[in-house]
Amino acid sequence: MKKFLIIAVLLTAIFLTSCGSYSGDSIDAASLGAALYEQEETYLIDNLDFYSSYFTANEFSMFLEDYNGSYAGIGVYMAKDPQDKYITFLAIMPDLPAYKAGVEAGDRLLSIDGEDMAEIDSDIVATKLRGQAGTAVKIEVLRPATEEKLTFKLIREVVESSSVRGQLIEGQAGIAYIYIIEFTEKTPDEFSEIYDELQSQQQIKGLIIDLRNDGGGSVPAALKIAGYFIPKGQILMYERMKTGYAEAYSKGDGHIKVPVICLQNGNTASASEIFIGSLRDYSVAQTVGEQSYGKGITQLIYQLNDGTALRFTKSRYLTPNKYDLHGVGLAPDYQVPMEGENLMQRILAVDASNDPQLAKAISLLKEK
Q1: 164-297+315-366: CATH architecture
Q2: Which of 231, 242, 232 lies closest to 16, judged by CA?
Q3: What angle do the packed helices 57-67 and 122-129 form, to 10 degrees?
Q4: Nearest CA-CA partner of 320 in 236, 228, 254
Q5: Most buried pick, 83, 147, 152, 188, via CB within 10 A?
Q6: 127 and 89 in contact (C-beta within 8 Å)?
Q7: Are 209 and 263 in contact (CB under 8 A)?
């Protein structure tokens, strides 16, 4: 009976994703949630795709907080490779619990409060790291450099995270650098504020937008920023549905007119790939780095009547030239490997002498 319930709900969900929107009010969410838990929360992934997931009410509430850019947690950025069972911490936010305890970029998260995190969706992992400010969470990590397993007990703090950082490149007149860590609802405003601030310091003649290790986030936010650069009225993305192609989201306004180089790597995914694909198809930007991740799908999240939520794939997104990057990724215009140790720290340092991808971007802009 439980398996029948799950299959029935999944078939309903698949049907509704191709036929229209759905509020969730007619689904017995409590029974569904219980059934999913008893199936070890793998049934959605096994029967839909790798990116499908189920959120408890608490997990979904925390997911929304992260989407809005403010939450209580430990202060880490992370990503997951489908070919690896565990999450890896990409960067540690300064002066927050993980940083103060000695957690390092590159650590692989093995467990949270004793619960094994193997093959758990990254958004679910993120919600488990969050909670009320002042509460404790215990994590176990594997440090690849030394093969040590380390345990940390951390006290959550409020994280008012900014998803954008920017600066002028020292010694390179007129070249600005903006790093988008992830796309949230706040990112377009943060991007505009930083760009305007840099422009007030010095006229920007070329811009480097760093999307390395940006796993995506809000697609509308990514497209809104892409629209700053793309000529007015041009389509930014297509969705491929079962019924055919559809134009998606806003169109360009093109008010920023400077040469752009985007930096990408294997962890550049989803909304970040949409952003890059849009700029490349209109010859607004060139790209430097390594092949991107290749997540080219749009997803729907339905909140059910008890506060839980289901997320599953709705369609594929395509670049303005209708290129389908899912499972393939985007090849950079200039293939430049980033090798050696402490890659994330080297990226965050914004030092071309120790970052060949950044150095290549600077050299390209100086030629323009």
Answers
A1: Alpha-Beta Complex (3.90)
A2: 242
A3: 90
A4: 236
A5: 188
A6: no
A7: yes
Consecutive H or E run containing 177: strand 175-180
Residue 81: partners with Cβ closer than 8 Å, 6 or more residues away:
88
pLDDT at 156: 96
Do β-strands 309-318 and 148-155 pair in parallel, antiparallel, or remain unpaired?
A: unpaired
Q: Which two structure tokens, joined as six digits, stand for 329?
A: 């990724």
DSSP state letters, 36-86: HHHTTT-HHHHHS-TT-EEE-HHHHHHHHHHHTTEEEE--EEEEE-TTSSS
Tell me the sheet residues that pair with 152: 139
Q: Give the Cα separation of 225 and 188 in Å (integer).
A: 6
Where helices occur in the chain by DSSP H, the ranges are 2-19, 29-38, 43-47, 57-67, 97-101, 122-129, 187-201, 219-227, 271-281, 343-349, 356-366
Q: How far apart are CA 350 and CA 147, in angstroms?
A: 28
- Smallest CA-to-CA distance from 277 within 348, 241, 328, 314 is with 328
3-class secondary-structure state, position 20: coil
**Single-letter amino acid, residue 189:** D
CB of 221 within 8 A of CB of 183?
A: yes
Between strands 285-289 and 334-335, the pairing is parallel
Q: How far is the CA of 75 from the CAs of 62, 89, 102, in angstroms? A: 14, 10, 12
- Look at residues 319, 311, 252, 312 and name the one whose alpha carbon lies nearest to residue 292: 319
One-letter amino acid of 199:
Q
Q: Which fold has domain 72-160?
A: Pdz3 Domain (2.30.42)
| Amino acid present at 49 | D
Tell me, what DSSP letter sits at residue 97? H
Q: What pLDDT sits at residue 248? A: 65
The Cβ of residue 51 has, within 10 Å, a number of other Cβ atoms equal to 18
Supply the angle between the helices 219-227 and 187-201 in degrees, to the nearest 10: 30
What global pTM score does this model have?
Answer: 0.73
- Please name which of 32, 30, 25 lies closest in space to residue 5, comparing C-alpha atoms: 32
Q: What is the mean pLDDT of each run of 10 residues along the chain (368 residues)?
A: 41 39 35 47 50 75 65 83 73 87 90 93 84 94 91 92 89 95 90 97 97 88 94 87 69 90 93 95 97 85 78 82 93 94 78 96 94
Task: Parse the chain into domains and list their residue ranges.
Answer: 72-160, 164-297+315-366
Residue owning tokens 């440090």? 143
